Amino acid sequence: MMQSPPAATPVEELRKQAGRLEAALSVGVATPTTKAVHELRSSTRRVEAQLELLATVKGLPPYRPAARKVSRRLEKLRRVAGRVRDCDVQDKLLKDEDHAMSSAVEAPSDLTKSQEKLRKRIARDRQRSERKLVAAIEQQLPKLTRDTEELLGALKPAKELEVSVDELLATIAQTMERMLRSREKGEEHLHDLRKAAKRARYQCETMSGSQAAAMAKRLEELQDAGGAWHDLLDLATVCHKEFGAEHPLSRVLEHLRDERLDKYLANLEDFRSKHMHHESAEAQRKPPQRAVAVTGAKETRAVRAIR
Length: 307
Description:
The chain is mainly alpha-helical. It is built from nine helices and four strands, in the order βααααβαααααββ. α7 (210-243) packs antiparallel against α8. 33% of the residues are buried.
């Protein structure tokens, strides 16, 4: 007997992810540790990803007004939690546990002093951001719970609706392809590509079957490469503001940032070549783009694409 193709239940999956988020918020408001804040951010993203996927599904009852209310509350929480998460990531980078900074050619012998000074500044920023996060959770959690219940109530008639995994994967692939074909350039677009890969990964992880698992793994690799670059991009900017662009630590971070950018661009090119099947042979023969991160005197950030 032939096995039926894998199917997904997007409404039921939304309910699961909403429950996970509620638990993460309860932990976050009580003990906003690094792990708790990361789980909170991840949970908001997973619910947002599921709502985005639901928007592509046909045959659902009217639910969009309720979904918009939930999305607005999620965005508020995610942004406030993001400030705390940024501090946690930057502190970990400055600890230099992999010795990436201390082993850099540009690294002076007294680099540790600058790292510790910047860590203290980031710790103060985290304390302020943490207080704002706790206040935001206390304010938004009851309202989010109410709005989520309204949303799930609107979707209840479609609770057991099954959608072909193949159809959902095709939709995800089309979304990524549009992003990769975009003529937009620069760091914001590269960051948007990373976020799109993250949403697509979360969507794939809710589906059964080897094809969805393989796509999720590949998207995670792309997301991680983009994240490694963007984390250093942000940290370099913080360092510029604290010490100036000519400071040795700023130079070290710029060097590491540009290394991660090269790896991210290579990862994007590899993903493009393997997953964009409709490109012409001529387009596939073109060399990959190389982006160079540039820091100006005014501490602005830009990425210039060079063919």
